Amino acid sequence: MTPLANLQNHQIRLAERPVGVPTRANWQFTAEAVAEPAEGGVLVKTLALSLDPAMRGWMNEGKSYIAPVGIGEVMRAGGVGVVVASQNPKFAVGDTVSAGLGVQEYLSIAAGDIARSGLVKIDLRLGSLTQWLNVLGMPGMTGYFGLMDVGQPKAGETVVVSGAAGAVGQTVGQLAKIKGCRVVGIAGGQAKCDWVVKELGFDACIDYKAGPSAVKDGLKAHAPNGVDIYFDNVGGEILDTVLTRINRKARIIICGAISQYNNTTAVQGPKNYLSLLVNRARMEGIVVFDYADRYPVAVAEMAAYLKDGRMKSKEDIVQGLEHFPEALLKLFSGENFGKLVLQVAKG
Ligand SMILES: NC(=O)c1ccc[n+]([C@@H]2O[C@H](COP(=O)([O-])OP(=O)(O)OC[C@H]3O[C@@H](n4cnc5c(N)ncnc54)[C@H](OP(=O)(O)O)[C@@H]3O)[C@@H](O)[C@H]2O)c1
Which DSSP letter does residue 294 get? Predict the structure, then answer.
């Protein structure tokens, strides 16, 4: 094994803020020596990183639920890795961990930064490394708490979820089925629609790319009793169309609006919001980090579903840190099929 002092940490930093779709010029590729951890510190080698639509928002200037990534800083990313050096009695060399590792090969975490980095051990008996970035990780937690806490599904209700074949969407749809709901997905393309119906057991799926009235017609056909819960991952026109089909006391979970993230003009808000008034419905946003103290409960439940086969998970794995800039764009073109993961090193 190479001594730590001789290791280079390759990193990807934000060089400039993008306008519209990010380009390779927005990134800077750097390398520096790996720092041995001091008293109480831990050195983690990155194995895989979670590529998330939210990364596009973190590249922007301005106030959000979390500070933007600064120019020149290593790009923020959640990930899973292995402890390669430790001066901390709670973490041993060889432990598999999850943390905010950043888009880089190593993260040396000082004793005082351990809590802030989110460093926790993960148990590979509950799920694979990439499942810990998917169903058992941040997207899975988003789907779980968004649906269960904000949506409050009841058996027999109709749940519609957009981005249905993506990371959050696949969890939401399967969980809603487990809770006894009728589930209609919305996804781009026949292959994704076939997968959520045939493999994940959704009742139906609407290919929103099939034509201008595909969502409207699809909802009439597949949600004939109206929509009780809409889990919105995409915003824009799809949200507007679903609003025309909601039931009295419907719950709309605003999880994300990926159709708007690369806009160079103002975000398109819902034109049909008065449907909330007519139907005494509510629309509520969710930020997954608010539920961090309850993750262990959700992880235990989801791990049990993975084990008994009621929950499946699909990850789309891109190899190599250097491919981060292009890999990230797959989320916005819809090229990712399942949770998008960047594999940085072998375990
Ligand atoms: N609030 C929170 O705490 C939280 C946490 C995690 C994620 N999120 C949000 O949840 C959403 C899903 O995230 P994810 O990680 O699960 O990503 P994902 O669904 O795995 O990947 C993104 C997908 O969005 C779809 N998409 C892209 N552009 C679109 C457009 N213009 N119109 C409709 N669909 C489009 C594509 O699927 P198709 O091929 O089907 O178009 C793409 O595969 C995002 O909006 C994200 O920001 C929120």
Answer: G
